[in-house]
Write a structure and sequence with these properties.
single chain; seven-stranded mixed β-sheet; four-stranded antiparallel β-sheet
Length: about 120
């Protein structure tokens, strides 16, 4: 079982920066994929960034060049550094862990864990 706790959200002016943190309790394994998602009112939850155990990262075009995801294995923590923030970045940001376990007996099992979310508000 994994628990994820986000922190670092808040109110910032457009053009500003924020760093979100996600502390994970429980064991994190190298094949796990950690990520950040966000959900604005009336919108579906959307992917913001992912990072693999090998350090590979991925971003949608909407945040590429402005957001950076990173991890600290010693602290079991993943970060999202957000810069050049825009009002449209306003949303609740969620930390996510996706784990896929393959066994002969069960085949493929996927486990997805979510944090409780942290509000980010960007004023114009």
């Amino acid at each position: 079982q994994v628990q994820l706790v986000e922190s670092g959200g808040g109110l910032v002016q457009a053009g500003g920066s924020l760093r979100l943190s996600c502390a994970a309790s429980g064991s994190i394994f190298s094949p796990d994929v950690l990520g950040w998602y966000r959900q604005a009112p009336g919108n579906e939850r959307e992917l913001v960034a992912t990072i693999t155990g090998g350090g590979n990262t991925d971003y949608p075009d909407s945040v590429k060049g402005r957001f950076t995801i990173s991890g600290d294995n010693a602290k079991n923590t993943v970060y999202l550094q957000m810069s050049s923030l825009k009002p449209e970045d306003t949303a609740v940001y969620y930390c996510n862990l996706r784990r896929v376990i393959v066994t002969i007996e069960r085949g493929i099992d996927e486990y997805v864990y979510w944090g409780q979310g942290t509000q980010v508000t960007v004023s114009s």
